[in-house]
Amino acid sequence: MPPQPANLLQGTLDLLILKALALGELHGLGVSRRVEQITRGTFNVKPGSLFPALHRMEDAGWLASAWGASENNRKAKYYRLTAKGRRQLEAEIGQWKRIAIAITFALQAT
Amino acid sequence: MSFLRNLFAKGAVERDLDQEVRSYVDLLTEEKIKAGMSPDDARRAARLEAGSVEHIKEQVRDVRKGSLLDSGLQDFRYGIRLLRRSPGFTMLAVLTIGLGIGANSAIFSVINGVVRKPLAYPDADRLMFITSQFPTLNFSKFWISPPEYFDFSEHTRAFSHVAAYTTGAMNLSEGDRPERVNTAYVTASMFDVLGVRPQRGSVFTADQDQPGAPPVVVLSHEIWQRAFGGDPSIVGKAVQTNGLSRTVLGVMPPGFDLHDSKSQLWVPLGLNPANRQNRGSHYIYLVGRLSAGMSAAQANAEMQGMLRQWREWVPQGHAPNDSTHRVQMAPLRDEVVGNVRKALWVLQGAVALVLLIACANVANLLLARAESRHKEFAVRTALGAGRTRILRQFMTEGTVISLLGAALGLALAFWGLKALLAANPESVPRASEITLDPVVLAFTIGVALLTGLVFGLAPLLHMGEQAVSLSIKEGGVRATSGAGRNRMRRGLVVAEIALAVMLVIGAGLLIKTFRNLTSVDAGFDAENRVTFGLVLPQASYPDSQRVVQVITDLSRRLEAVPGIERVSAMQGLPPMRPVNANDTNFEGYAPGPGDPPANVDYYQTVSLGYFDTMGIDIIAGRGFEAGDAIGGPVVVINEALAKRFYKDKDPLGRRLNPFLGPNTPMFTIVGVARDVKQGGLEAPAGTELYFNFEQTARLVGFAPRQMNLVLEVSRPLSSLMPAIRQAVSAIDPGLPIVQLRTMEDVVGASLARQRFLSLLLAIFAVVALLLAAIGTYGVLSYMVSERQREIGIRMALGAGNGRVVGLVLRQGIGIAGVGIVLGVAGALALSRITQSLLFGVDPADPATFAVVVAVIALVATAACLIPMRRATRVDPLTAIRAD
Is residue B822 included in any domain, yes or no? Predict the structure, then answer.
């Protein structure tokens, strides 16, 4: 029984894509698989959300893209983080941690 | 950058996105093959997992920066493409909207030029027009006397400058042809009040505005150009006016005018501040400029205070007060624009109705098209186009149509206005200021965008969410189209008919008003009468006996011309001339508190034979006779005067004492003439006193120098013109002939505004009627084609032509009936607004209403004819098989 894909919390998709790309450049399906992998299969990003997000983040200047060849020599568009994207990742990690701590405290409160 | 790339490198971006999504599907397929699926299964599964490529693309497009603008452009291009594909529809829609917008722009540009634009002076809203008012005499706006002007300007704090003026005309003899030129007689302060400096030279000073000062003149830019060829050294030269040499002081800037008087010459009024005796001599108007920080209300309050204390400044004689002799003020602009404002707003309302009808029509056209585009939109929705995107598509198409319509409308407005104003130059004040300026342009574009949105929205109303899903299903089995949609279309046509009914009723009432006015008995025969004006200047004709001699000589000379039967002269030209309200003592008449004051509205001086020449009936006593020239003082009165001052007594033989100067003797009434209209055809005739031209010159040394000759003719004016000109120049080559025209033209000119208004409204009403007919036709023929199947089945089941015709007719009459009822109700509701524009016709005139209802019903029936014929030609077999 595979884990149920959780609904992506608003705003977490960007964080996950940035994090996935922090390790190296990837094409669209690669991003999707990497996110699945690093979240232990919790998040399965569908193309309907993935591509709008990629293009939006590229427009924001966090990502850069280029056409390349896949392992099997297929043409694919590869995304990588820009310097601005790395700063954004730092910022979003910091913010996420604050939220996580706050939520944890909130849930522990009696 | 990416924003620009998205916008311009559109094709490349699209292809890129397409490839990217496809490569995603390919990679996913590969992954599945690796996991052990067969290639076919893998591809199918990958496609299923990825979802629709188009849907993904649509979503990506939506998040893109510049996507709004981008898809807007896309809609725009798409809209134009679609419109180009159906040129018939586009032309009809653009033409309809063009007519509607054109009419609105035209009327708005008139309102903009006449009512909205401030007058062409600096801070023009600080200028007030000051007049007197005599409630007991029924003069709501009257002149002011010079001493009152001095009293007021000396005491006021609310005004920084006050000026007095009167307007007239002078003979300007410059070059080969003498010319009659509008002249403003103004105090030196007028230029300060208006705040306009001369273009060259100077204006006159207070010293040059004294009685007896050397004569000077300031020229308008227009007369400087026209009569003096723009002579750069004109300042300091002398020009001849009324036989008097005047030194030119300066030239005013182009377009400078006072109270729309079209004055070309500006000369000193020459009031004498020391003379405070002539208090009863009201002949000037005042214009004042409010002091800094003073409001019109404060100025008014100050005036009310003055009216209570004026008596203290003038212990003796006639003084303004707050009951019988008020002084009042109003913004100068209101005065210039006058009562045309209301007529213009009525017209604007009318064209707004026309535009609404046009909108309803185009909305209906779009609706009909939307029906046929159901599937297209359903497919696009299924492919992932957002609903808002489809809505926007509608709006864009609407906007494209209305902008094209606006372009057409502006052209129509421009040429139409030019033609209309050329044909009716006297119909509105400030006509020279009517142009298509940026304000009109902005108005037009605003109206266009608004209309685009309005009729673009109409198809949306019925393209609800369910409509999209329904239409796919409907595509399969075509039944009668949705009831809701039809209700909407019918509603639009009902509204069109109702609006058209209102407009046509309004136009009908105005046309009836105009007809009533033209058939008003003016009291004289205008047919076969010709008239022109003549002014004999004091400088050349100092003696009043000489004036009489010249007019008499000229009359004899003219009478010798074949085709001219009779010639007489009169001072004032009916049926429209300014009231002159003269205090007159009637022997034995002492007005009590409720009685009319002893004052006569019009003094008229006429030459021998006048009543015959004009065809004015003498109903008692006699007219003037040759012997009166040397006989005792006699007058003829009109019926209105007899009724007012002599009631049931016989006025013949009674005496009265008019004021024609010092030592005016008692005059004996020898005749009563039928009333002649003088204050316009729509106004009741005022009281009138006729003097004999030949007699008064001798008796009191008074002869009007400005006379109108009237000629009874038996040939057309055009063939008599050379002889008339020759006769005048034989008497004095320096005398200009003023406005030589037929009396019928004179009467017609007094109706220029009413004619203009009813003509325009009639045009708009016809357009509205046409549009409503097209709308009715459209909705019925659509209904027939929609119900072809049903009609076919009915016919197959044995329904005859009559039944089928009845089906269509019932629909048509139902729509028209509801529209007519609503329209009549609307017209009745608006009757209070139209009332004041009407003459001799009730705003709920049953005859007009009946005719309009009949006409509209006829037009609606006519609009049913073609659809009816089409319905009877339905071939049952084809109709049933159609789908």
Answer: yes
| Higher-scoring residue by pLDDT: B789, B555 | B555
Please judge whether B20 and A46 are an interchain contact, meaning their C-beta atoms are less than 8 angstroms apart.
no
Is residue B153 located within the same domain as residue B289? yes
Task: Report the half-sphere exposure of A27 (CA within 13 A, side-chain side).
Answer: 23
- Terminal-to-terminal C-alpha distance of chain B: 52
In degrees, rounded to 5, the angle at the alpha carbon of residue A35 between the alpha carbons of residues A31 and A38 is 135
Give me the pLDDT at residue B460, please: 63
Q: What is the pLDDT of residues B216-239, one digit of tens each?
A: 999 999 888 888 888 888 999 998
B304, two tokens: 């009310």
Residue B8 pLDDT exceeds 60: no
Domain ranges of chain A: 12-108
Q: Identify which of A27, A94, A84 has the alpha carbon closest to the alpha carbon of residue A54.
A: A27
Chosen for mutation from A17, A44, A54, A59 (greatest number of chain B CBs closer than 10 Å) is A59
- Which candidate from B19, B51, B64 shows the least CB-CB separation from A47? B51
B280 within a domain of the structure (yes/no):
yes
Cα separation values, B83 from A28, B40, B91, B103, B392, Å: 40, 43, 9, 24, 16
**Domain span including residue B210:** 124-337
Confidence of residue B298 (pLDDT cuts 50, 70, 90): very high
Check whether residue B488 and residue B573 sit in a common domain. no
Q: What is the pTM of this model?
A: 0.66
pLDDT one-digit tens code per residue, B14-60: 788 888 888 888 888 888 888 888 888 888 888 888 777 777 877 77
Model pLDDT, residue B194: 92
**B685 and B784 in one domain?**
no
**b/e per residue B498-513 (b: at least 16 CB within 10 A):** bbbbbbbbbbbbbbbb
Same domain, B617 and B670: yes
Both B163 and B245 in a single domain?
Answer: yes
Q: Which of B731, B764, B792 is the last residue of a domain?
A: B731
CA quadruple B863, B869, B870, B872: dihedral, nearest 10: 140
Tell me: pLDDT of B774 over 50: yes
From the list B50, B55, B63, the residue facing A55 with the nearest CB is B63
CB contact under 8 A, B19 and A58: no
The predicted-structure confidence for B786-810, as pLDDT tens digits, reads as follows 777 778 888 888 877 888 888 888 8
Reduced to 3 states (helix: H, G, I; strand: E, B; else coil), residue B689 is: strand
Whether residue B514 is found in the same domain as residue B553:
no
Is B393 among the domain residues? no
Domain A12-108 top-level CATH class: mainly alpha
Q: Both B659 and B786 in a single domain? A: no
Among A53, A74, A77, beta carbon nearest to B20: A77
Domains: count for chain B: 4
Contact B580, B613 (CB under 8 A): no
User: What are the structure tokens assigned to B71, written together?
Assistant: 């898809």
Q: How far is A104 from chain B (nearest CA, A)?
A: 33
pLDDT at residue A53 in the model: 87
> Which 3 state secondary structure label does DSSP give B627?
helix
Judging contacts by C-beta atoms under 8 Å, the chain A residues touching residue B47 are none
Tell me which residue in B3, B27, B63 faces A29 most closely, judged by beta carbons. B27
Residues B658 and B753 placed together within one structural domain of the fold: no
Question: pLDDT tier at A5 (50, 70, 90 boundaries)?
Answer: very low
Whether B618 is in a domain gets the answer yes
ipTM: 0.84
**Residue A47's closest chain B neighbor by CA?**
B50
pLDDT tens-place string over residues A47-104: 888 888 888 888 888 999 888 887 778 888 899 999 999 999 998 898 888 888 888 8
Q: Which of B65, B86, B115 is the last residue in one of the domains?
A: B65
| Contact check, Cβ <8 Å, B59/A27 | no
Residue B389: its pLDDT value, please?
65
